[in-house]
Amino acid sequence: MKKLIALALITIFATSVAVFAADKDTLITAEKNTWQNIKDKKWDDFKKILSADFKGVYSSGFNTSDKELAEVKTLDMKSYSLGDIDVVFIDKDAALLTYSVTLQGTEEGKDISGKMNAASVWKKEGNDWRCVFHTDVKAE
After folding, report:
1. Whole-angstrom distance, CA of residue 107 vs CA of residue 60
2. What are the pLDDT tens digits along the chain (140 aa)?
3. Contact at 8 Å (CB) between 122 and 130?
4. Whole domain around residue 57: which residue ranges?
5. Which CATH number fits the domain that encloses residue 19?
6. β-sheet bridge partners, residue 77
7. Model-level pTM?
8. Which of these, 45, 49, 84, 129, has the minimum number of CB atoms within 10 Å of its CB?
9. Contact in structure between 81 and 101 (CB atoms under 8 Å)
10. Exposure string (b/e) for 72-91, b if CB count within 10 Å is 16 or more?
11. DSSP assignment of 110-135, as one string?
12. Which helix (H) or strand (E) covers residue 64, if one does?
């Protein structure tokens, strides 16, 4: 009986690890796609990743999903790279991503090139992951 219980627990644990690993890869891809959508000016695709209750926090203030979309439309990214992406699962349906971003580009004509530190929170809505929070700050 003890062997059966131990085997069941190992199976549950192994399945959970596999699910989290798959979701981790999915989230990293989603975050990368978000930046690519901005660079490529694919606004409909960008908007689809935002949760209805999205919040952005920046030095300029707080963004809803509509304000976030309006502001990213003022960006002209020539290039970007994401580094050191770390994913921490808050629970099975929520995760925090932290990473660095190095970009070349402008916002409303002003040069914003350089390195930033960024964080996003994603939550699972049905079968899809949606971004519910994002912030980034210029690295020193």
Report:
1. 13
2. 566 565 555 555 444 333 445 699 999 999 999 999 999 999 999 999 999 999 999 999 999 999 999 999 999 999 999 998 999 999 999 999 999 999 999 999 999 999 999 999 999 999 999 999 999 999 99
3. yes
4. 2-138
5. 3.10.450.50
6. 105
7. 0.83
8. 84
9. yes
10. beeeebeebebeebebeeee
11. EE--EEEEEEEEEEEETTEEEEEEEE
12. none
Alpha carbon distance 40, 33 (integer Å): 10
Number of folded domains in the chain? 1
Residue 123 burial (C-beta neighbours within 10 Å; 0-12, 13-18, 19+): middle
Q: Residue 109: what residue type?
A: G
Position 1 scores a pLDDT of 56
